[in-house]
Amino acid sequence: MRFSIPYFALGASIAVHDTAARAVVAVDEEPAVESRGLVGGLVGGVLGTVLGLGDVLEQLDQTQDPGTILDILNGVKPRATPTSLPEVQETLQSIYGAATPTNLFKNVALQLGSGLGPHDGGKDLTSIIAEHLDGENSVDNSNNPTNVSRAVYPSASAGDAPYSVPEAQLRAAIRIPAAFTFGAKPPVLLVPGTWSYGGSVFGVNLRKLLTGSPHADPVWLNVPGGMMRDAQVNSEYVAYAVNYLSAICNSNVTVVSWSQGGLDTQWAFTFWPSTRARVSNFLPISPDFRGTVLANALCLSADSELGLGPCDPAVIQQEHTSRYIATLRAAGGDSAYVPTTTFYSGFFDEIVQPQHGTEASAYLLDARGVGVTNVEPQVVCPSGSPGAGFYGHAGMLYHPLTYALIVDALSHSGEPGSLSRVDVADLCSHYAAPGLTLEDVLATAGLIPIALGLMLTSPDKRLIEPPILSYAKATSRV
C-alpha cells in the first residue's frame, strides 16, 4: 500500500518562550524556523482516515498524561507495511515532512499504523520497550578489562573535570562485543541519543556495516537511564569511554554519535581536554550543538506552546535557550576540537530544529583549524535524487553519504570525511547505504516510536534544568 500525499510549506514560525518555570539564558539571536504544515491538517486527516486512526488522533489531542498516551499508542496496529525503500521515504515524508511539529505523538501513531514502527509479532510498544532494556542494550557489562595501560580514573589529566560516577559504573556502560580485537583494528565508539541505547540505535545500520571492516572495530555505550538524565553526567560516560578504550587498545578512538550523543561528546571534549588527543575523528549524526527549538513540544503540558510540562532533565538541557547549551558554546564548544564530520537533514528533522544551512543546530565551526565537514544531503545531492529527499532524525543513520564519509574518515585518520573523495553522484542515487536492507531501514525508522515510548515511561521529570556543575561554571564565560 502506498501513500501519495501532497504537501505545502507554510510560512509559520515556531516561537520558543522564556518562562519563569525554565532557568534559561539568552544565547544567539533566535533563529527563524520554517514549520511545514498541511492545509486543513491534510496529513493527519487523509492518512489517519486511510489507516483508520481518526479516533486515535483525536484522543491524542485530548490528553497530556504519559500513561494514557502510551496506552493509546499500544493499541495502534500496523494497517500497511512499506514494501520498498522509496515507499518508506514517501510514507515518512507524508507523516513528518508536512505536519506542523506540535504533537509528535500523533505522528508516531501514524508511523505505527503505517508499518514503520517496532510493532512486530503483534507485540505492543510497552512489551517492546521492556525487551529493549536488556541484551545488547545492557548497562551492566562485566567483560570489560580492568588492566589499562595508563591512568584513566579518577583523572586522565590534571585539566579534566572530576567524575561524579564511580569507575565501575562508567566501565559497565561500555558494551564490548566478543569479536573485539583490542587495537588490532581502530576502535570506534558508538554513542546513542536521548531515550535510546547504543545497542539498538546502531545495530541495524552503522554497526552492521562497520562490523568486519578493516578500518573499524565498533563498541557502543549504553548509558543508564537511556540518556534521559543530566546531560552533564551522560557526558562523563563519553569522556571515560574515550580514555578507557584508547588505553586498552593503545590507539586512538573514532567517535560516531547520534542526536544528544553528539552534543555530549562535544561537552566531553570541552571539559575533559585529555580526550581530544585520544580521538582521531568525530562523526556526529543529527546532533544538536545549538539545542533545538522543538524541545518544548516534547514536554507534555496542557499548554503545549509554552511547553510548561515536566520534562526529562536532558530534554530541558537541549532547549535552544538552556544554560547547558549556552555554557558549552561560551566555553568554546561551538567549534570542533578534533577532525569532525557532521551529518544532518534539512528536510526534515522532526526532533532538532533549525537543521538547515549554516544556522543548523548541527553546524560546527572550525576556529581551531582541525578540519570540519558539515554535510546536509539536501544541499550536497542533486535535486530530485533519492539522497536529496526526505530523511528524518533517525533517517540520517542509513543515508548513503553518512556511511561513505564515515568510511572515508576512518581511512584517512586525522582528517574529516571529504566529499571530494567519494562518488557523490552514485551515493545520492541510493535511498540507503549499500548493504542495508528494507528491514534494516524499517528498524531504524522504528527507533523514534521506541524513543518516545521510553520518554513516556521515564520517572524523572522536572520543570527546571539541572544546575551547571562547578567545573563548567569556572571554565565558561557565561
Secondary-structure element series: EEHHHHHHHEEHHEHEHEHHEEHHHHHH
Structural class: alpha/beta
CATH secondary-structure class: Alpha Beta
Query: End-to-end distance, in Å?
Result: 53 Å
- How would you characterize the largest beta sheet? 7 strands, mixed
- Residues in helices, as a percent range: 25-40%
Count every helix, treating DSSP H or I runs of 4 or more residues as helices. 19
Averaging pLDDT over every residue, what do you get?
87
The strands making up the biggest β-sheet line up spatially as 3-5-4-6-7-8-9
The CATH homologous superfamily is termed Alpha/Beta hydrolase fold, catalytic domain
Shape: globular
**Can you tell me the number of structural domains?**
1
Q: Which CATH-level-2 architecture?
A: 3-Layer(aba) Sandwich
Please report the total strand number as a whole number. Answer: 9
β-strand amount: 5-15%
Return residue spans where pLDDT drops below 50 for at least 5 consecutive residues: 1-43, 301-307
CATH third-level topology: Rossmann fold
Gyration radius, in Å = 21 Å
Protein name: Lipase B
Write the layout of secondary structure elements.
Elements: E1 8-13, E2 34-37, H1 42-51, H2 54-61, H3 66-74, H4 85-97, H5 104-113, H6 125-132, H7 167-172, E3 174-175, E4 187-191, H8 198-203, H9 206-210, E5 217-221, H10 231-249, E6 253-258, H11 260-271, E7 279-285, H12 313-317, H13 323-333, E8 340-343, E9 372-375, H14 377-380, H15 400-411, H16 424-428, H17 438-445, H18 447-457, H19 470-475
Parallel strand pairs: 4-5, 4-6, 6-7, 7-8, 8-9
Antiparallel strand pairs: 1-2, 3-5
Helix pairs in contact: 1-5, 2-5, 6-18, 10-11, 11-13
